[in-house]
Amino acid sequence: MKPMPSSMHIYINGQFLSYPPLDKAIYARELVQAWDNLLYNHEIKQSSVQFEVLHPRLDHYEPNYKVIPRRQIGWFINDWWEQNELPLHSRNSLLFNPCGKGPLNKKKQAVAFHDPLLPDAKASGISKYIYGRNLNFLTQTSKSIFVNNQFIKDELTTLTRINSDIVSVVPCGANRLLKVRPDPSVFLKYNIGQRPFFLAIGDEGADDNLELMVNAVASIQTRKFDVVLIGKRYKSIFPVIQVSDAELKALYQKAVAVVFPAHIESMCLKPLEAMNCGCPVICSNLPSYKEVCGEAALYFDQTRPLDLSEKIITMMIDVSLQRWLMDRGIWHSEKFTWISTAKQILDILLSL
User: Fold this and answer.
1) Is 226 helix (H, G, I), strand (E, B) or coil?
2) Cβ–Cβ < 8 Å for 247, 186
3) Which of the four CATH numbers 3.40.50.2000, 3.30.390.50, 3.40.50.720, 3.20.20.140 does domain 176-333 have?
4) pLDDT 10s digits, 204-259
5) Residues 108-138: tens digit of each pLDDT
6) For the stretch 242-262, what's the b/e string if a residue is b when 16 or more beta carbons lie within 10 angstroms of its beta carbon?
7) Which CATH superfamily is domain 8-173+337-350 in?
């Protein structure tokens, strides 16, 4: 009688549990939660894989996993914890890093990259050197690498010259906000919604380029709509707000459209989520946006504020276009679920 094959033990870098709820942390939280749900619903056999989240001490976010255990390890936090204590406690097993960072001296690991791979042009020479060194170390020690779109894969393989066969394109999910009940109190809270309004959202991890939105709208002489900016604090004639997921969903459901003016590539999480909430999307014509959003978005040249102005005016007066993008966006975004993302990544991890 053949012995039963032992299950694969996968440690998860739980540094994300200490992060604020920005895009990378959202990706990690939703992915691990999807794995937990799959195990709980017996869609993944617990005999085939054992997950464990290793994390530093936490100050706020406490996940409620039904199956996947989590364990606080070590005394340090941040990079000291990740580079010194995490590899020690995850030795002899595969370590999955969901946020684009991981220990440089860990031999058996996998990593998901989301951010632009080239540092900002304004970064110092030392910062660029450290960034490039760490990126090369991490890619060379990883057994498998996951990216959200083909553009990032092409950029990564060109920059590091790693074997493209170990880099897998697995898009993120779009359905996170489906389970969130919209909070309409946001309209009274910020005194918005009396007139039609556009949202503008900057991507974390990149220059959100909200200035482009401000300049584009300023060039419209007769403006019969309002603009609400969501993102980093920015001096503007328009309100700049920070919102909860429930408030964001309420805004998505009432906005004429949402604009993503970023001019640096990103993981494209928020455009997909906006579509899934029924909000028409206008975004810059970056390769990653066009790849992920396809024909379900309206694009503009991020180097020309006038082009964005024209797209805003068109969206404002063309109700049939609004409705078409809304329906097309919902249909398109339904193809991106966190369960699908979790299954695709796990299949690859189990093959390592």
Assistant:
1) strand
2) yes
3) 3.40.50.2000
4) 444 567 788 888 888 888 888 988 888 665 555 566 678 999 999 999 999 999 99
5) 999 999 875 554 444 445 555 556 667 778 8
6) ebebebbbbbbebbbbbbbbb
7) Glycogen Phosphorylase B; (3.40.50.2000)
